# Entry
Amino acid sequence: MAAPHRPARRPAVDPAWRAQRLAEARTVVANVARHSDHLVRLACQVLTTHGQSERERRDARALLFAIEARCPARHRRAQALDPEVRR
# Structure
């Protein structure tokens, strides 16, 4: 008889570390013209997931949508590989 599968425990995240990552993401989004699309995508994903307000999360999703619209072929490939990309 197999043991029941238990989900892996996530280690506790230091609030200071999380605040630093959010600050970095906000800095990237605030100066989109100076950062690569890849870095902007990462920052938007962080803000979409961990943003403090609904407006911040919504704005990050909108920016992510605009970045993806500039390169639709890449987005289609990502959708084919990961259905979670569909938004």
